[in-house]
Design brief:
alpha+beta; conserved putative lor/sdh protein from methanococcus maripaludis s2 fold; 6 domains; six-stranded antiparallel β-barrel; 33 strands
Length: 653
């Protein structure tokens, strides 16, 4: 019985151990096999990555030779686009940033455009608009300040030494009329001159009965001289007539207002002694004021004399006042870089205040032919205008009542006699133009999906439209949204972009320009001569002076000039390499300079050689294996200096 129980227990234990082993084997098969599969896959991927890094295979799956050819075609560009694309990785010699590989080598791509497929276009939300020709009006806005009309300012000064006994205009701001009494002055000199006049008049009267004509003429001259002396002392003719009528001299005299206006300065008080020429009052006629504007030079160049200007005064925002351009400053302010423009504003009601601000607007035709075609103004059509006072306008020729000058026809200032349709201008939305400094570019869709960069010349901005003077034609499609993404793709491809749009147009390589020579002239005389002889930067092969004053570096006891400080590190790391470049450039320069002076022997008539079949053929020695390609002798290429434009042109090729 016991033996049977033990056998049953052993059988149960054996079955349990078998089940445990089967369970263990099942878990091993479940976990180990996928783990081995993943490990093999990871090793395979790692091996492929190592092979690709070593250059044995490429992303396209080619062999070693194909990968080497592709690696040679990769171009490395500066993220800031300081220099043309380079064939080797490294750092930018200008800004010292790490060069990054371009997305395209440019050999088979379009060097002036980027191609975008419809799917990417929808994702980037690229939209276009048509270049239109519209009759637009360009409005110039400016803020100015009201000031006195300098032609209507008068000063009342003392004609003689004396004492002010009374001031009738005893405070600043008094309004006076022409001829009003302003001051009462006591002067002994004035009294003696009046007595002299009375005596001369009496002598002339008694000499009428004299027989000698010479005596009569002498007394007449003495009388006229005494009267003129009183005029020079500040007396009016009515005051002189009053003295002659009464026959009594007066040591006191009234000073009268020379014009009608307002006293803007009072520089004397009652009882004060004054000297001859001392200022007592300063008067201003406020019936006309000046509005002084400061315009940008390009805006000032578009306006002309007599042009109508509308202004809104800050203290009277509900009223618009019209004036005309009286003067345009012939020079630009060196500090503010603006041009002063003077506007004549009428102030007949006296509501305008000197020193008040005003917002002025000037409307101009926006077309590029507006200057040549003229401007139509209904108030100036077929009229005559004063060349000094633009508010003096007449229907016929004559004299200006203020200055006495001859009136000139308004056509002399570019005003036409008939209204015509304003010259149309090519316009695009403002969002289509990318601007950076002096450069402005557009991306034109020449074909579906092909966006080409265009350097454009901008005109005035008219609301949401901007005038294009040069660079596009009517009917072309330009990108208005997504153009920054297009520009980024152009940069990554090493093509011309907003940062460096000059690469889109080839520029002539003409050596040292006037600007470069002017920059080099700022160096000391000895350094200037050395820089002109060296001409190029050995690091970037750009002309010295193209990036400002060239820094001087001492390399192994020799003076070397570089285009910028960014080239200093590269020059000091490889001094012999760049010194050889300078020497080669100098030798090439001397070779080209002396090439025209070479004396070549004269050429004789060529002789025709007849073929002789009797000669045995020439066998090539077996031990000499000369490749056919090596027989083509190539002349040495001299190292010539390159400007920035030459570098860019070489990079595109």
């Amino acid at each position: 019985m016991n033996n049977s129980n033990k056998s049953e227990i052993c059988a149960v234990d054996n079955a349990a151990s078998q089940r445990k082993q089967e369970t263990r084997h099942w878990w091993i098969r479940l976990l180990v096999q996928p783990a081995l599969f993943l490990l093999c896959g990871a090793l395979l991927i790692a091996g492929l990555g190592v092979a690709q890094q070593m250059g044995f295979i490429t992303a396209g799956g080619g062999g070693h030779s194909h990968g080497s050819a592709l690696s040679k075609a990769i171009k490395y560009i500066c993220p800031m686009m300081c220099t043309p694309p380079q064939s080797e990785p490294g750092r930018c010699p200008v800004c010292a940033m790490e060069l990054v590989p371009a997305t395209s080598d440019g050999s088979n791509s379009d060097p002036r455009a980027v191609h975008i497929d419809p799917a990417a276009r929808r994702i980037a939300n690229i939209q276009t608009a048509t270049v239109q020709s519209l009759p637009l009006t360009h409005t110039i806005h400016s803020v100015g300040e009201l000031g006195y009309d300098e032609g209507n300012l008068k000063t009342l000064s003392a004609y003689v030494d004396g004492r002010i006994e009374r001031l009738y205009a005893d405070f600043t701001g008094v309004e006076v009329k022409q001829g009003d009494h302003l001051a009462y002055i006591y002067s002994p000199l004035l009294y003696s001159s009046q007595v002299e006049l009375l005596l001369a008049k009496k002598a002339l009267k008694h000499s009428r009965s004299a027989t000698l004509q010479r005596v009569i003429q002498t007394n007449e001259n003495l009388y006229q001289s005494s009267k003129q002396r009183l005029v020079e002392l500040g007396m009016t003719m009515s005051q002189i007539d009053e003295i002659e009528k009464t026959g009594t001299a007066n040591s006191r005299m009234h000073l009268c207002a020379p014009i009608s206006g307002t006293v803007i300065k009072k520089q004397a008080i009652e009882g004060q002694y004054v000297k001859e020429g001392q200022v007592i009052y300063q008067l201003a006629d406020l019936s006309q004021l000046w509005l002084m504007l400061e315009l940008f030079p390009e805006d000032a160049a578009a306006i002309r004399y007599g042009q109508k200007v509308e202004a809104i005064i800050q203290s009277q925002p509900d009223e618009t006042i019209s004036g005309r351009v009286a003067f345009i400053d012939p020079q630009v302010d060196p500090q503010t870089r603006t041009v002063g423009v003077r506007i004549v504003i009428p102030n007949l009601q006296g509501q305008l205040r000197v020193g008040d601000y005003a917002r002025a607007t000037i409307s101009l035709p926006a077309g590029s032919k507006a200057k040549s075609s003229g401007i139509y103004d209904s108030e100036l059509a077929d009229c005559w205008i004063c060349p000094r006072h633009p508010h003096i306008i007449a229907k016929a020729s004559g004299k200006c009542p203020l200055s006495g000058q001859d009136l000139v026809p308004t056509s002399q200032y570019g005003y036409v006699s008939q209204s015509f349709a304003e010259s149309e201008a090519l316009t695009v939305p403002r969002d289509a133009v990318l601007m950076a400094g002096e450069h402005s570019v557009l991306y034109v869709e020449t074909k579906p999906g092909r966006f080409e960069i265009r350097n454009v010349v901008l005109g005035p901005i008219c609301g949401e439209q901007i005038v294009i003077l040069k660079g596009v034609t009517q009917g072309e499609q330009v990108a208005t949204r997504g153009n920054f993404l297009i520009d980024s793709q152009m940069q990554l491809a090493g093509n011309p972009s907003l940062i460096d749009p000059t690469r889109a147009e080839p520029l002539p390589d003409e050596g040292l320009s006037e600007t470069m020579l002017a920059t080099l002239s700022k160096l000391p005389k000895t350094d200037q001569k050395l820089a002109e002889n060296q001409r190029i930067c050995p690091v970037t092969m750009m002309y010295l002076g193209s990036m400002g004053a060239p820094p001087k570096v001492d390399v192994n006891g020799e003076t070397v000039f570089i285009c910028c400080e960014g080239c200093r590190e590269s020059l000091l790391e490889h001094p012999q390499k760049y010194l050889e470049i300078i020497k080669t450039a100098d030798a090439s320069k001397n070779q080209f300079d002396s090439g025209n002076d070479m004396e070549l022997p004269p050429l004789d008539m060529p002789e025709i050689m007849e073929f002789d079949d009797s000669l045995p053929p020439i066998d090539m020695p077996m031990d000499m294996e000369i490749e056919h390609e090596s027989l083509k002798l190539k002349p040495p290429r001299p190292v010539t200096p390159q400007t920035a434009a030459g570098q860019k042109k070489k990079a595109r090729q």
